[in-house]
Design a protein that fits this description.
mainly alpha, 3 domains, 3-stranded antiparallel β-sheet, 15 helices, 8 strands
């Protein structure tokens, strides 16, 4: 028999130790690496410990297992948690909904609506680990081109999606937020990054009110729109206004709640009452004589027509501005009415005007424009900024200052144009 030298025995022993450290041998004679194991029923496992937690992955073949191992190793180096690759955007959204705090109910409902209506059907099932900046940008472009959404609506979608993806970053599921600046180009291309809100001019304001007063078809809209124009109330504050909130004797409107209308899906809508978001939102607004007359007109009209408020929202009832069925209005109703009024008013102006006349036409505007117009008129009149802030319910003084700066800048330009005409010997008209 051949003699085995001690050196050879030592080498064999060291080889066996090394093989044991690296792994075992499969039934097919393939050497397994440390942590790898062959399952009795087929397939392979890889087990390891990370941050004190035992983890395992499975693959049907050894090659696939090792590819997964490489992906995991790369994620570990980037600080990404191993379970990130199996999570979808919808999974993160559920976590975000569960843990989100500090939002008003209506704000949260709007966020959820935007996500479930637009994000979920398109990229909600996408793996969070594979979502790229180009994917999010392409998604926003699709909403604009194919769905025909306004850039402002897409911006609202981005608001909630960015928060969801930011949660994934904070939980070390992805290294960076793929929605960062994804909407910037779309907003810039369409001039929506900074959109200055326009107020009605004094002539446009006069035309609007005169048309409402003189047109039987639209006279019933006069009280609500004049009240908005002369108080600066937000649309939810005006639709939620009750008779008990109005003190005609002392000349004040108490603003202490908002009527919120939210469309949950295509078949279900609901109203709810919410308290103002900030302390500044709860306020008293002085009643001018025009508002007093408009409210008295509305009361008289309802008495003659036998109209009574038939709805109760979260215990609130007796709303002032109701439709012919006794139901409260929502923002969509009011804005649709404005579009019809603007259209018909301009038709009348153009039909009655002579070709040589320089006529005033109503621009396209919304309910919020009436609030902004009221703020602009106050600024033009030189009313104290603190009073403007209190009446409008601005919690941040910078918001009031922005309105003041825009309003006074435009007003100064117009005044200097008038001055220039006078200096040249022309008419101020």
């Amino acid at each position: 028999m051949p003699t085995v030298r001690k050196a050879d025995g030592r080498q064999n022993f060291e080889r066996r130790v090394l093989l044991w450290q690296k792994g075992a041998e499969t039934g097919k004679g393939i050497m397994l690496k440390k942590g790898e194991s062959e399952r009795a029923g087929g397939g392979y496992d890889y087990r390891w410990t990370q941050n004190g937690e035992r983890r395992v992955i499975y693959a049907p073949t050894l090659q696939e297992l090792r590819e997964k191992k490489e992906e995991i190793s790369a994620d570990v180096l980037r600080g990404i948690r191993p379970n990130a690759r199996i999570l979808t955007v919808n999974d993160i959204y559920k976590m975000w909904v569960r843990d989100k705090m500090g939002l008003k109910d209506n704000t949260m409902l709007n966020y959820m609506y935007m996500y479930e209506m637009f994000v979920d059907p398109y990229i909600g099932k996408s793996k969070i680990s594979g979502l790229l900046y180009s994917d999010v940008k392409g998604f926003y472009n699709m909403l604009y081109r194919e769905r025909g959404l306004k850039v402002s609506t897409i911006d609202n979608v981005n608001t909630v999606l960015h928060q969801v993806l930011e949660l994934a970053v904070q939980n070390r599921l992805i290294p960076a937020n793929p929605s960062d600046n994804a909407i910037r180009e779309l907003k810039h291309m369409h001039g929506k990054e900074i959109q200055k809100r326009q107020a009605l001019t004094a002539k446009e304001q006069e035309l609007f009110l005169d048309y409402l007063r003189s047109t039987p078809r639209y006279q019933h809209w006069y009280p609500v729109f004049l009240t908005m124009l002369y108080t600066g109330l937000r649309v939810g504050e005006i639709t939620g206004l009750r008779w008990c909130d109005v003190d005609l004797e002392n000349g004040f409107i108490s603003v202490n709640h908002t009527l919120v209308y939210f469309k949950h899906d295509t078949n279900k809508c609901q109203f709810s009452i919410h308290k103002p978001k900030t302390e500044a939102g709860s306020r008293s607004v002085p009643i001018m004589s025009e508002v007093r007359e408009a409210l008295e007109q509305e009361k008289e009209y309802q008495d003659i027509a036998g109209l009574r408020c038939k709805v109760k929202v979260d215990g609130f009832s007796d709303f002032i501005f109701i439709n012919r069925f006794g139901n409260v209005h929502n923002q969509n109703n009011l804005n649709r009415a404005l579009r019809r009024i603007i259209r018909d008013c301009n038709k009348r102006v153009l039909s009655e005007a002579q070709k040589s006349e320089n006529v005033t036409l109503l621009p396209d505007f919304s309910c919020h424009t009436l609030r902004h117009t009221f703020a602009t008129r106050m600024c033009e009149m030189g009313i104290n900024l603190k009073v403007i802030q209190d009446v409008l319910g601005h919690s941040d003084f910078s918001t009031t200052m922005n309105v003041y700066t825009d309003a006074t800048s435009d007003f100064k330009k117009k005044e200097f144009q008038t001055l220039e005409k006078l200096l040249k010997g022309g008419s101020a008209e």
